[in-house]
Specification:
Blueprint: H1 2-16, H2 19-26, H3 30-44, E1 49-51, E2 56-58, H4 60-64, H5 66-80, E3 94-100, H6 102-119, E4 123-129, H7 136-139, E5 143-147, E6 155-163, E7 165-169, H8 171-175, E8 191-194, E9 201-205, E10 208-212, E11 218-220, H9 223-231, E12 236-240, H10 241-250, E13 254-255, E14 265-272, H11 279-292
Parallel strand pairs: 3-4, 3-5, 8-11, 8-12
Antiparallel strand pairs: 1-2, 5-14, 6-14, 7-12, 7-13, 9-10
Helix pairs in contact: 1-2, 1-3, 1-5, 2-3, 6-11
Length: about 300
């Protein structure tokens, strides 16, 4: 158990970027967290973090094993909370209150919820489409889905799928404007941006990183409205892949600067720790993962 606690301290520090934030994540005092990391470093025989008076940075060793350690803890949590696959689907009962971002529900998750209802007819789903950040513990939700954010203690986060953003525009807009070969040229284009998360656009290519501060022609807090504006030829837009996939397939939008990538994010499930043993919730997570990881760009 001591090794598991030390491993949790290591993963939380990687995620949060500081000992104090990781301690808050795990609901322990910083001295306990640092002691657990020191015990793990003592067993390994090498440091995992470079400490300064102002920051904590992972060593090369810590970075190499980050993904594996995270997977191990996720698998352990799955094991501890049980599995719905060993139970008859019709015997699983209950009610799940779920928060989902509007566009994600509209474009990707409706089939998942329908499939779950067919497979688990005795489980009630109470789904709220909410785009702002919430605390599932404080707001009384069994599951909150969204892009990874720092949460207070008392929750467990599980990765559902990677999230990629795609820069694109309507073909008739692109024909009428300067051809793009570098993100810096975006200053000469009309940009359609999501508020408040896109004050700037960031791109990566072969280790090089470029940050573009743009003057948006159109700003909106609704991804569907931004999609409509892009389809109308009003400018360039940087949207999640699940929002633009159908338009790209149909040719009504085209990818721009396809050799440059926006930094990848993750769609995660945030679950109150007192709910992680619920077999209905586990079954829903399996359906969500299957849906979100199918037919990505």
């Amino acid at each position: 158990m001591d090794r598991i606690l030390s491993l949790r301290a290591y993963v939380a520090t990687l995620k949060c970027g500081s000992f104090s934030a990781a301690a808050r994540e795990l609901n322990v005092v910083p001295s306990v967290l640092t002691r657990r990391i020191q015990e793990l470093e003592g067993e390994i025989g090498e440091p995992l973090f470079i400490r300064t008076t102002r920051s904590v940075a992972p060593t090369t060793l810590a970075s190499i094993h980050a993904d594996r350690a995270t997977r191990l803890l996720t698998e352990l949590d799955l094991l501890l909370r049980g599995t719905a696959s060993t139970m008859d689907q019709h015997t699983i009962q209950g009610k799940l209150k779920i928060k989902v971002p509007t566009a994600l529900a509209t474009f990707r998750l409706r089939p998942a919820f329908l499939k779950f209802q067919r497979s688990y007819p005795n489980v009630e789903l109470d789904i709220a489409l909410i785009d702002r950040h919430i605390s599932p513990v404080e707001d009384g939700y069994d599951l909150a889905i969204g892009v990874v954010q720092l949460h207070p203690g008392g929750v467990m986060e599980e990765v559902l799928c990677p999230l990629r953003h795609v820069l694109c525009a309507a073909p008739h807009y692109l024909r009428a404007r300067e051809q793009l070969s570098h993100p810096r040229q975006l200053a000469n284009h009309d940009c359609l941006t999501f508020f408040p998360a896109q004050a700037k656009w960031e791109f990566e290519k072969n280790g090089a990183q470029v940050s573009v501060v743009h003057r948006p022609k159109y700003t909106c807090n609704d991804l569907r409205a931004l999609l409509s504006a892009a389809l109308a030829g009003n400018g360039l837009v940087l949207l999640p892949d699940y929002v633009v996939q159908a338009a790209l397939d149909a040719g009504t939008l085209e990818r721009v600067l396809s050799d440059w990538e926006a930094p990848p994010l993750e769609i995660r499930a945030v679950i109150p720790r007192h709910r992680v043993g619920d077999v209905a919730l586990l079954a829903l997570l399996d359906v969500l993962k299957e849906t979100l990881n199918h037919d990505s760009i």
